[in-house]
Task: inverse folding
């Protein structure tokens, strides 16, 4: 797919001659974060963003300053004729699209590109499902709990039950004679087994369903051979079997072939001879491989294993071939085959389309997995204190189960780190890890984010609808951070998901079953909130199956030294400075400090210290803040912007401390919105 097929054409632009005031007006008018800047010839020369605007305003720039003086001259561009795949190999999220003459023709973001891929994936999935529903073979699939997950129309006909009656039920209740549970247990397929279901005789192929090396269920494919069996039984009753069979074959429009046990042709229909362009008398007695390309008739005759609805390439086209062994007294004495060569071109085209769709489906699955992947393991959790080791040991045990986990701890203790580690150590590690911050999403959008919505379900709903976070996490883990800030109305809907293990999109007719593990985290006292009526008790007890209480840093000072060593290495790489030591006196100050911001605050203190170091490679007491040492170190004169940002950062820290890290209360105390508070906390790494 070329970039020009998915880009946003004719973007709004700024001229390098425009003033700062004109640029700000354009940003506000179109409500966008950044605009490309072009010269008089329409060539891109830079980017002007809100960040740039705020920066130059803070620096006191005149509003009549020209854009060319303050724009960002480094930007990422791609050619409109390039393939979209090159975008995913680059770190940037937004690209200017140019033509061969470097004229700006559009804008492309990774988010827009993924939306296009998702819509195509949805189209492919819908068509594949329609094909399976239209198949003549009955198809039944189960999960690890032996519950039926797929049941097509042909299966309804043979079993005598509708899809609605059987989905989600134990297959042993529907088909007592089934061996699918045995296939799940053994991991070994069973091919060509004959089974009697109601009035039907079927040949069954059973195979485990695997994702990588992990078995997630099993599938049966039934071929109704009732007609074939009846024909063979009837022919066995007749003395002159050859005459009767010849009559049947000559009346058949499709290609029919009979071989003996060694694979030599004993009968062949006129229609098949005509299709192959051979003379019947000349091919009778020849080995089947000399007459028909890519045949497997001799193999079926030898093994006695049927092959139903197989694809066989003959004369450059794919055809549907069915090969059934002729069994007498329990032994294969030959085989009869049928080849459908009508609508050959349509079948060949369909085969190629399906093959292409399968490749695309695997590609899209890979892209989605990249978007929802956990980053950390238990090795990422630094510290050897007894308190931390005890929590890590409990977390490792929790990773071996699918039970819900509630992580409790102050801000900055590493709750998300533990959630990642539990997922990575679990059997769900190959499936998505999806994080949702319940406090950062506005209440009116939380339901659609969690559960998704159907097209047209409300004003502004996207075409094609939207998949929710729970569906994205199907098979994996969803991490609900700041669960204590979830509105009561949404808590009731979350409780239903926990109870029923299904989600219903906004505007959907029915619900969808999901297999998602829930890990929740909070820095609040949920038990107290339950008593005060601010949190549902039934939801609390559903979540509180396995509880991790992460100790604050002040309760495990013996971990500080390991954390400092780890963070100095990490921050030195980040900041491009080589600082690998800390004085004994400075380390003692760090160990004695009470750390209200926990590990996150420690990292901020170390980052500040490394930034203050000019030529030394050792962190000294003078590099630590006054709140830790009680000393006022000499410091260089800072810009007004830096002073304002430091005051704003300290004000947020003080508000969080006064409100016991309750971010909603802190936002009200600071008289700003909760989303603004989260934005500033992210800015200052709080």
Result:
């Amino acid at each position: 797919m070329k970039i020009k097929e998915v880009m946003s054409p004719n973007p709004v632009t700024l001229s390098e001659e425009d003033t700062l005031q004109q640029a700000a007006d354009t940003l506000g008018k179109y409500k966008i974060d950044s605009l490309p800047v072009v010269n008089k010839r329409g060539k891109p020369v830079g980017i002007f963003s809100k960040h740039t605007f705020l920066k130059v305003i803070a620096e006191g720039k005149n509003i009549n300053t020209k854009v060319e003086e303050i724009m960002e001259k480094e930007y990422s561009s791609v050619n409109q004729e390039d393939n979209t795949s090159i975008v995913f190999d680059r770190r940037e999220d937004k690209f200017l699209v140019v033509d061969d003459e470097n004229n700006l023709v559009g804008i492309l973001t990774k988010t827009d590109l993924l939306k296009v891929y998702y819509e195509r994936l949805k189209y492919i999935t819908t068509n594949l499902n329609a094909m399976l529903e239209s198949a003549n073979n009955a198809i039944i699939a189960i999960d690890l709990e032996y519950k039926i997950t797929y049941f097509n129309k042909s299966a309804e006909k043979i079993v005598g039950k509708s899809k609605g009656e059987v989905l989600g039920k134990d297959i042993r209740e529907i088909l007592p004679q089934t061996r699918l549970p045995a296939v799940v247990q053994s991991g070994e397929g069973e091919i060509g087994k004959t089974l009697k279901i109601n009035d039907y005789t079927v040949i069954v192929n059973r195979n485990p369903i695997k994702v990588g090396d992990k078995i997630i269920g099993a599938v049966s494919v039934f071929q109704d051979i009732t007609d074939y069996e009846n024909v063979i039984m009837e022919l066995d009753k007749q003395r002159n079997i050859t005459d009767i069979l010849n009559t049947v074959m000559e009346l058949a429009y499709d290609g029919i072939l009979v071989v003996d046990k060694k694979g030599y042709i004993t009968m062949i229909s006129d229609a098949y001879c005509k299709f192959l362009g051979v003379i019947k008398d000349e091919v009778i007695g020849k080995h089947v491989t000399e007459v028909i390309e890519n045949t497997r008739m001799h193999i079926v005759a030898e093994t006695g294993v049927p092959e139903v609805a197989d694809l066989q390439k003959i004369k450059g086209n794919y055809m549907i071939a069915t090969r059934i062994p002729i069994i007498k007294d329990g032994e294969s004495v030959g085989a009869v085959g049928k080849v459908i060569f009508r609508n050959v071109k349509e079948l060949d085209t369909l085969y190629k389309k399906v093959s292409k769709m399968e490749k695309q489906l695997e590609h899209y699955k890979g892209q989605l997995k990249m978007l929802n992947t956990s980053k950390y393991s238990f090795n990422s959790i630094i510290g050897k204190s007894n308190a931390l080791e005890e929590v890590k040991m409990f977390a490792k045990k929790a990773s071996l189960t699918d039970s819900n986990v509630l992580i409790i701890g102050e801000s900055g203790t590493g709750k998300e780190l533990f959630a990642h580690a539990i997922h990575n150590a679990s059997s769900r590690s190959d499936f998505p890890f999806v994080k949702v911050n319940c406090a950062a999403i506005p209440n009116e959008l939380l339901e659609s984010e969690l559960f998704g919505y159907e097209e047209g379900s409300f004003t502004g709903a996207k075409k094609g609808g939207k998949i929710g976070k729970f569906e994205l996490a199907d098979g994996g883990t969803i991490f609900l951070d700041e669960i204590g800030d979830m509105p009561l109305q949404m808590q009731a809907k979350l409780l239903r998901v926990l109870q029923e293990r299904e989600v219903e999109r906004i505007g959907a007719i029915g619900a969808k079953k999901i297999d998602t593990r829930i890990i929740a985290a909070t820095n609040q006292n949920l038990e107290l909130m339950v008593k005060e009526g601010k949190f549902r008790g039934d939801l609390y007890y559903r979540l509180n199956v396995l509880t991790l209480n992460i100790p604050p840093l002040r309760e495990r000072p013996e971990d500080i030294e390991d954390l400092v060593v780890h963070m100095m290495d990490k921050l030195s790489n980040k900041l491009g400075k080589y600082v690998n030591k800390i004085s004994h006196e400075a380390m003692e100050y760090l160990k004695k400090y009470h750390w209200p911001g926990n590990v996150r605050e420690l990292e901020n203190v170390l980052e500040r210290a490394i930034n203050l170091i000019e030529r030394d490679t050792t962190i000294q007491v003078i590099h630590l803040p006054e709140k830790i040492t009680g000393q006022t170190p000499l410091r260089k004169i800072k810009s007004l912007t830096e002073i304002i940002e430091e005051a704003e950062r300290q004000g947020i820290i003080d508000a969080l401390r006064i409100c016991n890290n309750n971010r909603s209360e802190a936002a009200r105390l600071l008289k700003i919105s909760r989303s603004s508070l989260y934005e500033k906390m992210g800015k200052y790494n709080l």
Observations:
- The chain is about 40% helix and 20% strand.
- The chain has a mean pLDDT of 86.
